[in-house]
Amino acid sequence: MLSHLVLLLSALLCLPVFGQTLAAPEAWAAAQAGKLTIIDIRTPPEWKQTRVAQGALLIDMLHPQGPAGFENEVLRQVKGDRNAPIALICRTGNRTGQVLRYLRSRGFNNAVHIPEGMAGSAAGPGWLARQLPVQNCGAC
Question: pTM of the full predicted structure?
Answer without folding.
Answer: 0.85
